[in-house]
Amino acid sequence: MFSPDKANLLAINAGSSSIKFALFPSSPASEAVFRGALSDIGGKHSAFAVQGAGADTFTRHFPIPEHVTASNVLVEWLAARLPPAALAAIAHRVVCGGPGPTATRAIDAPMLAELYAAAPGEPGHLPQELRLMEVLRRHYPGSAHLACSDSAFHASMAPQAATLPIPRRYQALGVKRHGFHGLSCAWLMGELARVAGPRAAAGKVLIAHLGGGSSVSAIENGLSRDTSMGLTPAGGMMMGKRSGDLDPGLGWHLARTEQMSPASFNHMVNHQSGLLGISGTSADLRVLLASEAHDSRAAEAVAMFCYQARKTIGAMAAAIDGVDTLVFAGGIGERAAEVRARVCAGLGHLGVLLDAGANEAGAALISDPSARVAVRVMRTDEEAMLAAEARAWLGARGEDGHA
């Protein structure tokens, strides 16, 4: 049980198959008190793991069939350790494929109404996020509950990057390219300024956030100019289970030839495609790399992923007329040296050249000293960014969270 008079910040990061969370002190630049995750929700290897909470550090494997169970497990664990007075704020990452918060906002009735209205457009994330918002508001009524947009970082995109080439009347409904992984980009840009200096962060930066969800963002003078994800996180490059961009006519084709419903199409492109769809065996790139020598479909999936990442990086470099720094982040970007090598092998025309030894060792700087482009491997921390957003919001309103 944590001290009831200590003001802590709880970060909640609910995804399509996981819930990550972390507790931070309210003081700036503080390390997490603990971090945890419920992973592979609905899968065969679901687990609940916590690190940094003293005797509570553990990893337990047990069935977590869906998000309702996951939410109940998490809230029960938190309630046994964090009394209501222990939390100054709870900050939620909000992935919203439609009109939603463009900055960190308090979660109140109007905000919830907006998010419920947008939920059908983002079934992979928003329903889970809303469920946790509701239950945590009941358990911690005295805390500030905050919605932190995962798209806010990309609000600086110009109309030519954000507007979809469809009839203009849809713009009024919020139908545009929102972009995602914004909290990750914001955190990484702050870290880039810290480790490489403000000049590097003010240059032409490409962030390749490669993982179960993958995107590449083009950033210039600290502002997002373009990003590969669009109206929803299913857009852009091929991912673990998501297709990425497709010919718009595919939906109509499958509706005519297979009588596929819109719901079935949405499920296919979000949960049955990408690495999983091409390999037929796994969405986990580590598994596919290990089996590609004897499994041609695994090899094809890996080759496609690396090709699409390379192509998307090239497109984002064109959006800002070059690149000074290329950042690899996310589970794949941070840990898969072989993928980084294959992606960068086709980027020599941009000035990208890796130091093979540094890359294999997972060094922070993996570019050759002679290269024009600095290539970095960085760990993103969306939970720490959520805590930073909560501190800023509380600071603007006084210590008690009120204006």
How do the strands of the widest beta sheet line up side by side? Answer: 5-4-3-2-1-6-8-7
Measure the end-to-end span: 30 Å
Beta fraction: 15-25%
Rounded average pLDDT: 93
User: What's the total helix number?
Assistant: 15
Sheet of most strands: 8 strands, mixed
Return Rg in Å: 21 Å
Number of strands: 13
Derived structural class: alpha/beta
Low-confidence stretches: none
Roughly how much helix do the residues carry, as a percent range? 25-40%
The coarse silhouette is globular
- Write the element-wise H/E pattern from the N-terminal end onward: EEEEEHEEHHEHHHEEEHHHHHEHHHEH
Describe the structure.
The structure is a single chain. This protein is α/β, with parallel strands linked by helices and 403 residues long. Helix content is 38%, strand content 18%. The chain has 15 helices and 13 strands. The strands form two sheets. It has an eight-stranded mixed beta sheet, sandwiched between helices. A five-stranded mixed beta sheet has the order 11-10-9-12-13, with helices on both faces.
